[in-house]
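for the record, two folds in this file. i put them one after another cuz i was lazy. first one right below, seq on top, structure tokens after. the second one comes after a little note so u can tell where it starts
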Amino acid sequence: MAFSKRSDKPRSRRLGGKGMQRILILACIFGVGAFGILFAKLWQLQVVQHETLEKKAISQQTREVSSTANRGTIYDTNGAILAISGSVQNVILSPRDILARVEVDETDEFGNPRSQTVIEADREQKIQATYDLIADGMSEILGIDRSNVLVRLQKTNSAYEVLAKKVEDDIADQVRAFIEENDLQGFIYLTDDSKRYYPYSTTASQVIGFVNGENEGSYGLEALYNTELSGEDGRTIFAKNASGKEVPSAYSSYSDAINGYNVHTTIDSTIQMLCEKTVEEGIRKFDVTNGAFCIVMNPKTAEVLAMVSYPDFDLNDPSAVVDVTEAAKLNKMKKNGAVTEEELADAISQAQFKQWSNKCLNTSYEPGSTFKPIVVAAALEEGVVCEDDTFSCSGVVNVAGWNIRCSARRGHGTQNLRKAVMNSCNPALINIGQRLGAEKFYEYWENFGFTDTTGIELPGEQKSVFWDKEEFVSPAGIASLATASFGQRFTTTPIQLITALSACINGGHLMEPYVVQSVTDTQGNVVSYHEPTEVRQVISQETSDQVRSFMESVVSGRNGTGKNAYVSGYRIGGKTGSSQTLDSEDHIIVSFLGFAPADDPEIIVLLAYDWPQPAAPGQNTTASGVYISGGNMAAPMAGSLIADILDYLGHQKTNTTTGTNGVSVPRLSGKTLAEAQTALSGLGLNCRTSGEGDVVTDQSPNPGSSVPKGSTVVLYMGTEKPGETVAMPDLSGQTYEEAKTTMEGLGLYLELGDSGTEGKVFSQTVEPGVLLDVGTAVEVKFSDNTDEAAAIGQSDFWKKLLGGAD
């Protein structure tokens, strides 16, 4: 039997070549596998998730804070600030940082490890204590609900929760002190922002407009010029340490905010406020229920100097309803349990929209007789009428079977063209319209710009509403031509009307109205500038001169419908208007368009009051006895406004005449009684004496006072004028004789205004109840009923189709 020979080599050596080879192969396989896994993980972290992880790291180690660019300033024509941005702060909360940075001890006081449950409970307690501290402090400083702060604190993934926006410096200082005192850096922080301020509150509110909570323009020029005004926000990125404090880092970067451009308007804030005062005074005086509007322009350039729409609103709080009547309605609804929240919200929205709407652009109304100068201008330009032409008015004219009445029920008789304009005679204007013809009438309607908007740089301008051309020029349009000739049954906007009428008096040039003069950058460099833009020449200089002369006669003539706009010392031209609307027999819009100086106009004014309330339905006077018409309401208010504007602009009066029936009391001190009596007698004044001296030592009323002829002057002979005072009476609605008797019974004197003594008291320069020295002369103006019949109580055709006259 044979046996194999046993090897004497060790086992390890026997496994030598192949065993080691296996081991190395396995090692390589495991090594490569492990490296592959590591490589894959690194690939995922460094490549696949690089951007995500980088953003996460940056967000944990840095904070980005934006800086709001200062919105550009809006100025009036003289550099007065109408809208400006101021620096404010936003208060920001970072719940994520609170959660990440609240630390608790992991060992007890003896150095022994604490259980995870205890640590977490302690952590939760400390976080809640921080929450309570912040909620208590911020609710007290910022005046916000504590629960609201707590809700925001629960958003633990957020580092940007806005607690308050646009806080003023005093509040911001309190927040900073609270952060410092309680070591809350990084939990609460402040960011720069800007807030819009409107120094003049309600002045030119619909023109300027306002911004929303994001500092973007929402209305008016703020919206239209939002891009220019906004600028470009800046950005700051800084690194933060574990405590949230800023530290130097390569991540830090700064981008400065670029402030917005400035807008320079043509609005003159002084003229604007004079207009607003006139509007508000007329609304109170005439019990106007549907607002009012007023525009002042330079007729040569069409730059708008003032634009008023009532009701207005406070630009610093545009959502608040400021009109007393509207606010009372809303308060009544709030107290009415039957009114739902939706109904109340809708009413508030409508009230806000009403006050935000600019009547000068958004309201299309029947202009009435203020349109008549345009018809006359077109007829003169076409040569179908001349100043010497005569027109017969019997008080009514029949057109297509309809009787159209004149404001003078008995008629104006035979009158030339100038007199027809002064009388605002409807039959005469109908005749002129017929001479012009429908085709030419429509041609001038287009040429004066009524078929398009004016192009003024304000949002929301409406177009005029007129008959379709084919309908208007057809034989069936004869009644439409008649009514259009005196400004009824079509509608236009105030800005459209005043622009067209400017062309009638400025030499015939239709100009494009504008409210922005220029835009400048922060260094004052002009970015854009608005030059006056002529659209077209509509009528000749000769025709314009004639129309301007006619319109001056309307005011200066003794029987002109605009005579209540007369102001001594100023040459004013104008045209009255009283138009009845279709929604109610009593709804009348009274207006006056005036300009001055009449020989070379520098301002043109359109003033209107919408719906003065009659004393009772169907009556033609207000409760205070004022006749409802443009001549009796808008004309005297506009006349005084024009005089105030001319005074402000530095115009000198052309003469110093007193009133038609007034005389100026001479200075009599130092004269003998005989000399004084002779001087007074020559002026138609009486006198009585007090004292027994030889010469006049004082007099009442004072020298220079304008009093009616027949008034009695008190001469103090060797004695002093007594220092007794009396209360000024309310003369509203009194005739001249009644007012004179009332005043003289108190030892006071009437000082006549420019209106003469006809009619009833329209205004007095001293309010009732004011204490005056005995002998004081008070200026009183009278307004007579220049319109024998307005739009009330006319025929069915007049009520339903034609409206009123003035």
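(here's the note) second protein begins now
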Amino acid sequence: MSELPKTYDPKAVEDKLYSFWNDSGFFHAKVDPDKRPYTIVIPPPNVTGQLHMGHAFDETLQDILIRTKRMQGYEALWMPGTDHAGIATQIKVEENLRVQEGKTRHDLGREKFLERVWAWKNQYGDRIISQLKKLGSSCDWERERFTMDEGCSKAVREVFVNLYDKGLIYKGHRIINWCPHCTTALSDAEVEYETQAGKLWHIRYPLADGSGDLIVATTRPETFMGDTGVAVDPEDERYQHLIGKTCILPIIGREIPIFGDSYVDKTFGTGCVKVTPCHDPNDFEMGQRHDLEQILIFNEDATVNENGGKYQGMDRYACRKAVLRDLEAGGYLVKTEEHEHNVGTCYRCGTTVEPMTSAQWFVKMAPLAKPAMDVVKQGKTRFVPDRFAKTYLHWMENVHDWCISRQLWWGHRIPAFYCEDCGEMTVAKEDMHVCPKCGSTHIRQEEDVLDTWFSSALWPFSTLGWPDKTPELDYFYPTSTLVTGYDIIFFWVARMIFSGVEHMGETPFETVYIHGLVRDAQGRKMSKSLGNGIDPLEIIDQYGADALRFTLATGNSPGNDMRFSTERVEASRNFCNKIWNASRFIQMNLTLDKNETVALPAALALEDKWIVSKFNTLVAEVTRNIDQYELGLAAAKLNDFIWDDFCDWYIEIAKTRLQAGDEDVQRVLCYVLSGAMQLLHPFMPFITETIWQALPHEGASVMVSAWPQYDEKLHFADEEAQMATLMDAVRAIRNRRAEMNVPPSKKAKVLVLTEKHDTFAAGAGFFPKLAYASSIEPIDTVPADAAKMASVVTGDAQLYMPMGDLIDFAAERARLEKEKAKVEDDIAFVMKKLDNPKFVEKAPEKVVAVERDKAERLREHLAKLEESIAALS
């Protein structure tokens, strides 16, 4: 048990304590049939990423849960790891290659480029892990995983082949979301939609029989070279007679059919829609229904290809300008309207996505979605807050087939193998070198890699050893709680649920605890463009990890965004200092044997029973709040109890007894402080460990000590009520003295008129000191000279203090007379304005009203001063 320094310095203890915990094996979880498991898998951060406030928020909430469960006796596993982050990592390495060497990945070739990526991963991959450790994350680092490690890669191939063999993975030529900047396909969940100001162009398409023309409205004239039809609502009487006819594509001169399709909204634009099957998902579906030709007009970088005729080689936006110029010159452009519409952008780089038809790999979602919805509907997996279950179910009910192939080199390469001699394609768990059909050795593997989220979807069971039947998988799966933001319910949560149900036969977690985003003090999303991001490592360096963690916890309620500001961190730092100073005071006044286990004394005074009972209630409430994922509420209650009840009241009350060498009060102080440090530990692990170690205790660390339990025998309702009566009286007396500017050093007799004389008698040891009283005198009736006393009334008592004890009459009268003279001067100044007809007539009504209100307030103040002066006569 070491002596606490004068001030708390987080830098002096945090790294040392973290090493102590880690080296002692406190983070490691084992298969233990005698204990209940509690498991959280970390949402794996990008391997080359850097800790941001969103990570800090997410990891703090997880660590609070895992530390609590560990202390409650569960075999608590927090599975850590990182994600290979296909697009993000490849782009970072490519950019580095371009800047440092002026080369592209194609200059190196696939094999050499991947060597560079692995080297990058090995160089920077541990950065975010070390940053998570700075936060205090108590992950089981002995089990750290990586989505492209050998075990996870084995699981990926197992799943891919199993789904392919069941017909749930297929390769097809379909419309997909294409990012021209990242040059890869994106799934629907990777497209973010934003409202953009655009235009609606009305274009004339001549009828082939020369009988007139159709006016088509479009937001994308640059794709018209790929038009292979014009669609109308079959119920639209304006165009029914044209269904089955053909029209001529302007400039290009190609004849295309006019057909009816119920997709068309006859109230939008002109009611005629140009159909470009290769560049719009709805047009693609119509093209499938009506057997339209597919003409792809863009390259992978969104420049026009050879099917674009004279526009070949142009960027899509340059092409738009050229097309509109030519349409106008040819008399085809009828009119232009302003039009706002939703535009899909790449979640990674923000580039406008280009819908394109392409040969890609897909997961057939309908058969997987239904059982994944059933586990939520049946309550096997619940969302907190439960409103997010509706969000999840709505997305699953409307889910499209998942495009899982990516045109990247970094990632899990799709295990499909092609024979270059006979064309046979084989999907296999092991690399193939011989064609099973013709025996050829000319085998080529699929170039594309899998969507990063494909491997992340397997995280809850691949990290535990699947597809092998390991003891860890049997013991820790299904996991207990998933903690994640609402922004990746579709990316990750939904895919983990259907993957767990499909491959493990049960849901991957019992509870999905959804939190919001961390925003700045103005409620704006933190971003590079706004320059409002706050580096959590800088906050830790300046204020300590505990202050950051407590700030994130106290600003949190399930599912809602939180606002972050340095002012709130400073408040948390002040809380640390408050705890530290109180703990140091207690430690300096202890005469107990440093090695003994501190138990409550047999006899407890009124104030002892009060603080023990309040702490007992706190144990029950904090435990319940954490179980219900109300972590912000639990943190607030801990703050209130420690700061208010324990520090500001009980320690102040205890000082007189401490000075007298009372060991009973020392035991109560140690019991409550030690227990409070246990409850606070999951939120503020470093300072609580330091203080706990400095108090009499048993065990190696607070983090493996037993979580406090509610004890009905320690619930003292009567004593709590008595203390509430005394505290109300103290507050009332202090407030009245403050109003009268009476310093604490000036003592006054307090006369107490109450039916609860026993309560005030029980508090005789501390009440006079807290009430700044020279003496306490119980009375049965209102004093005869009550008019010359300062009095206050509480719910249980009337309290009187002789004015002569409180103030120097002559000095107070002089002060009041001086203040009265100033107020009279102020009234005269205001009235001079109001008595001036020119001011009243010419000044704005609001200005005159303000002056009148000021005069009224000054008169009221003057009356109170005169009343106070009269009372002193």
